[in-house]
Amino acid sequence: MIQRLRILIADDHPIFRRGLCDALASDTGLEVVGQAANGEEVLKLTRELRPDVAILDVHMPKLSGLQAARCLAAENLPLKLVLLTMYEDEELLNEALNLGIQGYVLKENAVEDLILAIRSVVAGRPFISASLAGALLRRRTGR
Fold it and tell me: Where does residue 72 rank: exposed (0-12), middle (13-18), buried (19+ CB within 10 A)?
């Protein structure tokens, strides 16, 4: 039996979260083991469920996705993180990369990009939505 990747989804909008679950259900190698509506639930469920990948919305109540990522990084858990955002914000992207977040997906591309992002980060390769390529080049060249 092939072991499926265990996924935690965190987003404060229940309908969007449900849509992500449905999108991931199309891949038999993935299993959504938990859902969180805020950053505090992310911490609790990650400790309890030990997912392989946590998908974190940037803007959530109690703790943002970045704040939750900071806490999880401090605990040194064997966990890959993918950040979800609506904004093509270069400053936010840089902050996420500086935190060591492996995946960065725009919500507008979530259905197309999410499974690719999960597979990529689990394989040790970063994933960033293609529309942010310009921001990555500026980061690299310092312009």
Answer: buried
